[in-house]
Amino acid sequence: QVQLVESGGRVVQPGGSLRLSCAASGFSFRTYAMHWVRQAPGKGLEWVALISYDESDNNNADSVKGRFTISRDNSKNTLYLQMNSLRDEDTAVYYCARDDILTGRMDVWGQGTTVTVSS
Amino acid sequence: QSALTQPPSASGSPGQAVTISCTGTSSDVGGYNYVSWYQQHPGKAPKLTIYEVTKRPSGVPDRFSGSKSGNTASLTVSGLQAEDEADYYCSSYAGGNIFVFGTGTKVTVL
Description:
- The structure holds 2 protein chains of 2 kinds.
- By secondary structure, chain A is an all-beta fold.
- Chain A is 0% helix and 51% strand.
- Chain A has strands at 3-7, 11-12, 18-25, 33-39, 45-51, 58-60, 68-73, 78-83, 92-99, 106-109, 113-117.
- The termini of chain A are far apart.
- The mean pLDDT of chain B is 97.
- The interface between A and B is medium-sized, with 25 and 28 residues.
């Protein structure tokens, strides 16, 4: 079945780095754009980053610009989020979601992976 | 990249209708027909409920409908059911490969 599974979340110290992964299965990953969306404890959803199906387009939210990098490996059906210079406010559940043509139609979501930034 | 504005809460009795607003600007909600709505139950991932302002994904009941006027989009849930109690978030394309979510609305079925 169509599925996204995130991994890589853990406790990390402020200033540290982390790479999240999102493994896709059950659909043609290489034909879909992808997003990362996060949700801090008890807070709302926040869009983090997007990447087009062929990596020709990508962008980040201002809150993570210069620190987070989205990438993908279509040969491995996997999406990544490289997170550097982590701050307390980056503590959140991170979800990956697919989008067919970058219209914000995020129709499949993973279960989320938890990142905790704490000393 | 300011969050879209939603009321914190909304409520209705079973069978009634509830409408949630999502207010942005001419640079996001008002500028594009790429407004989506997501339902999120506690501890679960969000679920796409409406996309491109008015379209329903397959499997979403026709009790859910979307609309837009100017810089404000709306989600209406008609014939409220107990399982509709959840948090609802709007989202809009904001140009330049940027998206923005709303502040979220907790819907309570009385």
